[in-house]
Design goal:
The complex is a heterotrimer of chains A (117), B (158) and C (502).
Chain A lengths: L4 H19 L3 H21 L26 H31 L13
Helix pairs in contact in A: 1-2, 2-3
Chain B lengths: L15 H23 L8 H19 L1 H7 L2 H25 L22 H25 L11
Chain C lengths: L8 H15 L6 H23 L6 E4 L5 E3 L7 E3 L3 E4 L1 H24 L6 H20 L3 H19 L5 H32 L4 H10 L4 H19 L8 H7 L2 H28 L3 H22 L5 H22 L2 H32 L15 H15 L5 H16 L2 H26 L15 H16 L6 H6 L1 H10 L4
Helix pairs in contact in C: 1-2, 1-4, 2-3, 2-4, 3-4, 3-10, 3-13, 3-17, 3-19, 4-5, 4-10, 5-6, 5-10, 6-8, 6-9, 7-10, 8-10, 9-10, 9-12, 10-12, 10-13, 10-19, 11-12, 11-16, 12-13, 12-15, 12-16, 13-14, 13-15, 13-17, 13-19, 14-16, 14-17, 15-16
Classes of the chains: A mainly alpha (117), B mainly alpha (158), C mainly alpha (502).
């Protein structure tokens, strides 16, 4: 149980984000929910890279360390990319939210029901 | 930057204390961002993180002095130009690698030794291109969303 | 064979075009010219790739010349370090489809987008979307696939909201949230796969998974995540809820791109790659795909029956036709996969044509509601003839191209003894025919109304795009001739049949 506890907490964070997207009516809260879910997945990716007893994967001067003493560096690069994608999505949705407020006069998503059927 | 006299209430931007401290620190923030970009192949950070910090220095300028003052230093059109230039530079580096080796090949690999600033071939150049794109891009997002607000229903303009 | 160095041009040319337009926004006419030139280049390259490919070969390019290295401390010998780009039969097939439609849509937009402001931004986003879709098809690395899926998706969210009216913004918001969730599910699946296999390269992953079967539970979890995530991008039922709002609200050329190529490149192609080449098809997976396909077909066509908005009706039919494609591919036999992939090609052609026609009607008359239209065939002859040929093709009337692909799918069902699925396929075909007879009768035949008396045919570039697509609709059946079939469709089918090895 000790080893899987961080992963379980990560999944709980993801579920909190999904809950916010489903249950909240304010557009800004839906965007925040998507951001929380996104960060939960990024956190999960970083946790998947951890090796027990490993150090940060940076070469200091001169030494070439033994293989297996560092944490896996590949997911760190993947997480950087994923954070940038999350930033772009959030920025776009906030711009949409500002425009929606201008058109509808409200942030409440239950009032935006033009498309139906 | 001009030295301003005592700040009056109707001048744009924030109070005198904020303006003075900003004037002192934004140069340092900008320099710190460039340091992170240039040492991207040696220490954590690199193009994206450094670009965000560079953008933060301009955002700081805008917040403290008002939109019209900062647009004289770095306007929205200039931000669009720098962004596109950064992207084209990155693409040019990638395609030049095609010429010498493979796509994205590290064709300056042999100069310098590991651990020094001049090493790792094209990676510092790619970092600089990404810093230009990301910094200008985030500053443009900030300007568009927060400073220039023109939508129907509310006509506020700061 | 194609030299490997030209593979990245499929992504580099549209990207360079997009950023050059961003630099030179103010120059008159430059965005249009750049958009058309970039798509012409990629289309020519893709045709070149098909003509030059040898049967069964795969052209690989290692980015940065990293190649395969010996990883210290890993179990097996050689692992691929770095990202690979690969072109095999399926990739060249998809590239031709995507770039052909992109080129014609770029030509069509020259006149259609004059009604909107900021044409330069349209072409920038459009070229970014094309670059993203091409990138999905040529990459050989799973996380790189995810990144390109995101690039294309973000560009499409912005393009759906391009008109900035009330409905467009609401539809774009819904689409962005659901697309975001789909991407998160895909990313979760990739994380599980990576921590299990230790590599991100698709070929290495399939080899590793073949040697170490691993636990049943993990495999089902990852397959479920990928089916949900990519199924959301492909608008499979039950993940289809965003499509009827997003596709009609986009400007007509973008609707054509979304319905015609985006849901296929991001959704169907990614499902094929992951399910066939990485995991290998099993009977349970096959029946699940067939079930989802049949469900999509039926629900799409039933919900389309009560629509009076032309583009919303076409959007529901997109859901239904994607069901055909997934059913054909899910059958798993060579005949079934041939039917599915041929229907993918045909659907891109006739669905794009239908959306461009709806756009032409809207450009000329200002409305999309079938109850307000009527008798346009006299004033807009090109539009009505092309709509007629596309409608006959989608309903499956010989000798149009749609008939042949639906026939092959029905034959594949019968060959496997799946009488129920064959019956559903024919039934849905008949209902599709009913829907399109409605469009023809209410939109084009009959007497013209007072208010529409002054409409005229659409401008030249739009007509060129419409007529070209209609010609391919009519002549599409020729792709089944033995000589052409082995070179084009046959290669794609072979890659999926090879499964794990391909």
């Amino acid at each position: 149980m000790n080893a899987t506890l961080p992963y379980v907490l990560c999944m709980i964070l993801f579920c909190i984000g999904i809950y916010a997207m489903l249950a909240k009516r304010n557009i800004i809260k839906i965007i925040i929910g998507l951001s929380i879910a996104e960060y939960a997945v990024n956190l999960f990716l970083v946790l998947a890279a951890y090796r027990i007893g490993g150090t940060a994967p940076i070469f200091s001067d001169g030494r070439t360390p033994a293989p297996g003493s560092m944490v896996d560096p590949l997911p760190h690069a993947l997480v950087l990319t994923s954070i940038v994608i999350g930033l772009a999505t959030t920025a776009f949705m906030i711009a949409l939210a500002i425009r929606l407020y201008g058109k509808y006069g409200t942030f409440d998503i239950t009032r935006m029901r033009e498309l139906r059927g | 930057m001009q030295v301003r006299a005592m700040s009056k209430e109707h001048e744009p931007g924030m109070s005198l204390i904020v303006k003075t401290v900003t004037r002192l620190t934004i140069g340092l923030i900008f320099l710190y961002g460039i340091y992170i970009v240039l040492h991207g192949h040696l220490t954590p950070g690199g193009g994206f993180a450094g670009g965000v910090i560079v953008a933060l220095s301009f955002i700081n300028l805008t917040l403290a002095f008002g939109g019209s003052a900062s647009s004289k230093v770095f306007s929205l059109d200039a931000a669009h130009m720098v962004e596109a230039l950064g992207a084209i530079m990155f693409l040019a580096i990638a395609l030049l690698g095609l010429q010498w080796g493979g796509f994205f090949d590290n064709f300056l690999r042999s100069d310098g030794e590991p651990g020094m600033l001049v090493s790792a071939g094209i990676i510092p150049l790619a970092n600089i291109a990404i810093c230009m794109k990301v910094g200008a891009g985030i500053f443009a997002i900030f300007l568009t969303l927060i400073v220039i607000q023109k939508f129907e229903g509310e006509g506020r303009n700061r | 064979m194609m030299s490997p160095g030209t593979i990245p041009l499929f992504v580099a040319v549209p990207l360079a075009g997009a950023f050059l337009i961003a630099l030179l926004k103010r120059v008159k006419g430059f965005p249009d010219a750049m958009g058309v030139m970039a798509t012409v280049c990629t289309f020519a390259l893709s045709v070149f790739a098909v003509l030059r490919q040898l049967p069964g070969e795969r052209v690989i390019l290692d980015i940065g010349s990293w190649g395969a290295r010996l990883i210290p401390g890993s179990i097996d010998a050689l692992r691929t370090v770095g990202i690979q780009l690969a072109l095999d039969g399926l990739s060249t097939f998809m590239l031709v489809v995507v770039n052909f439609i992109a080129f014609l849509v770029a030509v069509y937009s020259i006149h259609y987008m004059t009604r909107f402001t900021s044409k330069a931004y349209f072409y920038i986003l459009f070229l970014l979307m094309v670059a993203g879709m091409n990138g999905v098809i040529i990459t050989g690395d799973l996380f790189n696939l995810f990144v390109f899926v995101e690039i294309a998706s973000l560009a499409s969210y912005a393009l759906v909201a391009f008109g900035t009216g009330k409905r467009e913004l609401e539809a774009a918001f819904k689409y962005a949230v659901m697309g975001g969730v789909g991407s998160l599910l895909v990313l979760l699946g990739i994380i599980f796969l990576y921590s299990n296999t230790g590599t991100l390269n698709m070929m290495d992953m399939s080899r590793w998974l073949a040697e170490h079967p691993g636990s049943e539970g993990l495999r089902n979890l990852v397959l479920g995540l990928f089916l949900a995530g990519f199924g959301l991008k492909a608008a499979l039922v039950p993940f289809h809820a965003w499509l009827p709002d997003a596709h009609p609200s986009a400007p007509a050329p973008i609707s054509a791109m979304l319905s015609g190529v985006l849901i296929k490149s991001l959704g169907v192609y990614a499902i094929c790659r992951v399910l066939f080449n990485i995991f290998g098809i099993t009977p349970q997976l096959s029946s699940m795909l067939m079930g989802l396909g049949a469900l999509s077909m039926s629900i799409g066509v039933i919900l389309a029956l009560r629509q009076w908005d032309m583009k919303r009706l076409l959007a529901y039919h997109s859901i239904s036709q994607i069901g055909y494609i997934i059913l054909g591919i899910g059958i798993g036999t060579p005949l079934g996969i041939l039917g599915g992939l041929f229907h993918l090609f045909n659907h891109s052609i006739f669905k794009s044509l239908l959306f461009l026609d709806a756009g032409a009607v809207e450009y000329a008359t200002g409305t999309r509601n079938l109850k307000e239209l009527g008798g346009l065939s006299r004033r807009m002859p090109v539009t009505s003839w092309t709509t007629l040929s596309a409608s006959m093709s989608i309903a499956g009337i010989p000798p149009f191209s749609g008939f042949w692909s639906k026939l092959i799918i029905v034959m594949a069902c019968v060959e496997q003894g799946l009488w129920f699925y064959a019956f559903i396929t024919v039934l849905v075909s008949i209902l599709t025919l009913a829907s399109f007879m409605k469009i023809m009768r209410y939109g084009f035949l009959g007497t013209i109304r007072e208010a529409l008396g002054k409409v005229s045919e659409v401008p030249a570039f739009m007509r060129i795009a419409l007529v070209t697509l209609a010609l391919v609709c009519i002549l599409g059946g020729l792709l089944l001739l033995p000589g052409l079939k082995n070179g084009f469709l046959g290669q794609a089918v072979q890659v999926l049949i090879n499964g794990r090895g391909g």
